[in-house]
Amino acid sequence: MKITVHPLTTADSPPKGIPTDQALIGRLQASFRQMMDRGPELPDGFYARLFAEHPEVRRLFPADMAAQKGKLLNTLNLIVENLHAPAVTRPRIEQLGVAHIAYGARPESYAWVRSALVSAMGETSGAAGTSALQGDWAIAIDLVAAAMMSAAGQGRNSAAARSA
Length: 164
Prior knowledge:
Shape: globular
Helix content: over 70%
Radius of gyration: 16 Å
Order of helices and strands: HHHHHH
Strand content: under 5%
Number of helices: 6
Number of strands: 0
């Protein structure tokens, strides 16, 4: 088995000489293009599932979800299009983590989002929504969430230090 590094690894310095998993990048990008071809199905399905499973989070979002759905797609697109260069997306992911403190996100919220997003991706992918591909997406989303939570933790620590 060939050893590779996930393109969204959060390690500051992946082991030298271990290549990024190009096949994974190809699978994620191809499946995301299929999802985008289906219009608003992905964000609609994601938020419908998230709010149905966790109605308490609905209050954290605006009444009109059009802009929010656009932000979700834009962020996903930025990440997916830059899987070959994750340093491009890392600042945006960290920004989101810090911003989500003010939005009321809690650590358990990330698991809820992953579950709803992976399910919506599977439904939106059609035939491409295999369990293996859903596993690829789950790992990718977990890595994004880890980077967001790390940045959020640093943001909380910085705020605490400033107020002390």
